[in-house]
Design a protein that fits this description.
heterodimer; A: mainly beta; B: 5-stranded antiparallel beta sheet
């Protein structure tokens, strides 16, 4: 079974520029998550999708961050404009209700550096 | 608000020794997860603990859950260098199946030969 795919793996941009990250979850996983991980800390949830519906986006800074999962499969997370403090690793994860455990499987992440 | 605390945050140990990492959480939860993260890599799922008294073992790692004490432990037996990594516990609040994981700060384990 293929894992969660993310791209790009690394991104360096200047502040005030836009940036987008892409995630393809494990096939058949209806729940998709975007997490932010700062250096030396645990991941923090930004947004959770059940199929194409965003069911928890309370931690998403909506003034500059947006996300979509149009067909309930892959997802895009966008930042516009980026700020220096956005430098972090952005992780995508997915899970399936069918497993009953809500175990989340993580992708390799996108490391963002804002200069 | 659910909070998850791990200790120690950093652990340096010799190969062959035993040690335990502790994960405390502040509110009721019926699910706890342990993940491993190697430097520059993503999180790898180690254990899923779903009920009070649950114990799971994989190789030199054993995880347990005490929901009454709101405590999980990750025990390392006869550590080897390959276990060097950062270990995270994560908890789902039982107030509605939101699926939102709250992570601890992580415990960085360094096993010295």
């Amino acid at each position: 079974e293929a894992g969660v795919v993310q791209s790009p793996r690394y991104k360096i941009i200047e502040k005030k520029q836009p940036v987008a990250f892409w995630c393809n979850p494990i096939s058949g996983h209806n729940t998709l998550y975007w997490y932010l991980q700062n250096l030396g800390q645990g991941p923090e949830l930004l947004i959770r999708y059940e199929n194409e519906e965003a069911v928890d986006d309370s931690q998403l800074p909506k003034d500059r961050f947006s996300a979509e999962r149009l067909k309930g499969v892959d997802s895009t997370l966008k930042i516009q404009p980026a700020e220096l403090g956005d430098s972090a690793v952005y992780l995508c994860a997915s899970s399936s209700r069918d497993r009953g455990t809500n175990e989340q499987f993580f992708g390799p992440g996108t490391r963002l550096t804002v200069l | 608000e659910l909070k998850v605390e791990q200790n120690p945050l950093f652990l340096s140990m010799q190969e062959g020794k035993n040690y335990t990492i502790y994960c405390n959480y502040s509110t009721t939860s019926d699910r706890l997860y342990w993940y491993r993260q190697d430097p520059g890599k993503s999180l790898e799922s180690l254990f899923v603990l779903l009920s009070n008294g649950a114990v799971k073992q994989e190789g030199r790692l054993m995880a347990s859950l005490d929901t009454k004490a709101r405590l999980s432990t990750l025990h390392i037996t006869a550590a080897v260098h390959d276990l060097s990594a950062t270990y995270f516990c994560a908890v789902v609040s039982s107030s509605g199946n939101t699926g939102k994981l709250i992570f601890g700060q992580g415990t960085t384990l360094q096993v010295k030969p």
